[in-house]
């Protein structure tokens, strides 16, 4: 049976690209979403050269209308999706007493509101009403940092949203999970290499339904 597409939002040179590669090599057509059109085109071309199916969609996750339109366009071009991965994030240092209101709002727009828009858009498009909605969380949701306040608040908010969505979708054929990454992606610990993390996302998508969970604590 032909696999449905995987929509990967937030594709850059680290985890985002590894996610696109993992799902493409598993047989899913992949749609790559991000702001850097040239970089996305390069990644899609490389995957296509391997015999995979990939397309690039340049969009800002902070633009709700643009993100919704891009996701629907990908569904039109690839057919009904099977997987959504929301990996977009802004990670700027800031403190509780020095937050700039506009920058804080923009961070939340990328890190949280974009995830809400993506989920709301993709849910009714899922192939046969079944599939996986996977979100990249972070350990700052559990242990906030005063040096990365907006990121901490964002990850806590995203975690709450995804767990709420998971509860709403229980009993359906939609697997909703956040991957709470408790380490530095691409750092010295090989467990947190982008490829190994991407394999964990793919494994979540392939889990039997009786093993579905609201959160994977990846530590």
From TrEMBL:
GO terms for molecular function: 2,3-dihydro-2,3-dihydroxybenzoate dehydrogenase activity. SUPFAM superfamilies: NAD(P)-binding Rossmann-fold domains. One of its GO terms (biological process) is siderophore biosynthetic process. InterPro entries: DHB_DH, NAD(P)-bd_dom_sf, SDR_fam. It holds the Pfam family adh_short. It comes from the Bacteria. PANTHER family: OS08G0476300 PROTEIN, OXIDOREDUCTASE, SHORT CHAIN DEHYDROGENASE/REDUCTASE FAMILY (AFU_ORTHOLOGUE AFUA_5G14000). This is Short-chain dehydrogenase.
């Amino acid at each position: 049976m032909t696999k449905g597409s995987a929509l990967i939002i937030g594709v850059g040179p680290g985890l985002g690209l590894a996610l696109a590669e993992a799902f493409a090599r598993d047989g899913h057509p992949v749609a790559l979403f991000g702001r850097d059109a040239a970089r996305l085109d390069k990644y899609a071309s490389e995957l296509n050269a391997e015999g995979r199916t990939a397309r690039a969609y340049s969009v800002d996750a902070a633009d709700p209308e643009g993100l919704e339109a891009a996701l629907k366009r990908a569904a039109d071009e690839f057919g009904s999706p099977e997987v959504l991965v929301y990996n977009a994030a802004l990670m700027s240092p800031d403190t509780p007493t020095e937050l700039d209101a506009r920058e804080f709002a923009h961070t939340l727009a990328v890190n949280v509101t974009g995830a809400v828009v993506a989920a709301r858009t993709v849910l009714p498009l899922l192939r046969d009403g079944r599939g996986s909605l996977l979100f990249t969380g972070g350990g700052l949701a559990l242990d906030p940092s005063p040096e990365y306040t907006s990121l901490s608040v964002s990850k806590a908010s995203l975690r709450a949203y995804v767990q709420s969505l998971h509860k709403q979708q229980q009993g359906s054929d939609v697997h909703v999970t956040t991957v709470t990454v408790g380490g530095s992606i691409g750092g010295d610990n090989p467990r947190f290499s982008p490829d190994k993390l991407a394999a964990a996302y793919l494994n979540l998508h392939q889990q039997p339904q009786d093993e579905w969970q609201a959160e994977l604590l990846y530590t």
